[in-house]
Amino acid sequence: MRVVDVGKTAGHHPVPQERINEILVEEASRGHAVVRLKGGDPYVLGRGGEEREACEAHGIPVEVVPGVTSAVAVPAAAGIPVTHRGVARGFTVVTGHDEIPQLPTGGDHTLVLLMGVAALGRTAAQLVAHGRDAACPVAVVERGFRPDQRTTVGTLSTIAARAAEVGVAAPAVIVVGDVVRLSPAWESAEPPVSRR
Amino acid sequence: MRVVDVGKTAGHHPVPQERINEILVEEASRGHAVVRLKGGDPYVLGRGGEEREACEAHGIPVEVVPGVTSAVAVPAAAGIPVTHRGVARGFTVVTGHDEIPQLPTGGDHTLVLLMGVAALGRTAAQLVAHGRDAACPVAVVERGFRPDQRTTVGTLSTIAARAAEVGVAAPAVIVVGDVVRLSPAWESAEPPVSRR
Question: Where would I find the Tetrapyrrole methylase domain in this sequence (chains A, B) (predicted)?
Fold first, then answer.
């Protein structure tokens, strides 16, 4: 067995996606059985579909094995269920800003924002501008399930300042919605300044 | 080890949720280590949060292990990535109808509907009434990853008739959005009558 490390970290992609696709095709074309091991789920913002397409374009059959997505698992690590009876019946996972004007605005619909730390302040402001309550709870969960996991909570109006205060850094999963109140981190947090 | 079967199937819940919560508390209170084994992810419409709350209300510590949710895995089984570069950047998972008026309408935002087979025709009509293109692709995936898995495709305007035609039955996962075109089932399907 040979291991080809193409690992990405935030802002650091040593092997471009196109080259990853090529490696998969090259190795399979040599007759090797190739396992493309990814973190999370390959189809949740994981570019698994592109890798599959690259292989299939060369007649290489692909089997996709679903994984545990950080969009659900990292909130869970912080004690936040993305759905919860009487609190939230559905959830949306997004990365960018383009979709914000169209997202459900109720606290009973959970938003999970991936790769959103750098733009947190702007995102929070946009969500409020497009109808979500400024008092809607938010959690930013860093390093989910790791020993140094950290959950920072606030509201749409306070979270950017709080995150800056404690030095939140990517990668982190951001959860917006009433379900955040179910996290032990919410209970133990300092009450947001000038609120409750 | 003792196994207490509380398994649910569509429309058949032999043990009510409240009783499940009680069993967890009773068994743990007797000093047993209790594993509550669930299909999918316990926090994606799995009532895991309620079970955790029931235990914690009795001082019983709980560890939640995330799982592979059918909301992502069953589309994947049909070759549908819920996100795909240039096709869809985000996705929403819902069950009920209440949220339909608020959902993003673009084909580039994937909708995953769980427990939605019985209401498929009504849901499709509502999505169109609230702004989604009647030509938006839809897939209904039954028995994902089982040997008898079946994918039925159509558009918001045709899917209800097609599903009825082939006798689609719960449980199934419904995917709405342009990503459906990436499924092999889409390519091999009969062109929808009077379209393309």
Answer: 5-159
What pLDDT is attached to residue A193? 47
Largest CA distance in chain B: 65
Q: What is the number of other CB atoms lying within 10 angstroms of the CB of residue B50?
A: 18
H or E element: which one contains B91? strand B90-94
Whether residue A69 lies within 8 A of chain B, CB to CB, comes out as yes
Q: Is the pLDDT of residue A196 over 50?
A: no
Token representation of residue B44: 């994606």
- Output the six-digit token pair for B29: 């209170």
Tokens of A10: 């935030």
φ, ψ dihedrals at B45, nearest 5°: 55, 35
- CB within 8 A of B33, min separation 6: which ones? none
Side-chain-side CA neighbours of B181 within 13 Å: the count stands at 13
Full set of structural domains in chain A with CATH: 1-67 (3.40.1010.10), 70-188 (3.30.950.10)
Q: Classify B143 as helix, strand or coil.
A: coil
Shortest distance between the Cα of A100 and any Cα of chain B, in A, equals: 9
Q: What is the tens place of the pLDDT at every residue in B128-167? A: 999 999 999 999 999 999 999 999 999 999 999 999 999 9
Q: What is the pLDDT of residue B97?
A: 78
Q: Which of A181, A95, A85 is nearest to A137 (CA)?
A: A181
Please answer yes or no on whether B102 and A109 come within 8 Å at the CB atom.
yes
Please name which of A104, A89, A180, A181 lies closest in space to residue B46, comparing C-alpha atoms: A89
Residue A153 contacts by C-beta under 8 Å, 6 or more apart in sequence?
A: A137, A138, A139, A140, A159, A162, A180, A183, A185, A186, A189
- Structure tokens belonging to residue A23: 């490696």
Given a contact cutoff of 8 angstroms between Cβ atoms, the answer to whether B53 and A15 are in contact is no
Closest-CA distance of chain A to residue B165, Å: 29
Q: What is d(CA A73, CA A173) in angstroms, rounded to the nearest whole number?
A: 10
CA distances from A2 to A7, A63, A87, B90 (A): 15, 20, 48, 34
Give pLDDT tens digits for A12-35. Answer: 778 999 999 999 999 999 999 999
Angle (deg, nearest 10), helices B120-129 and B159-166: 170
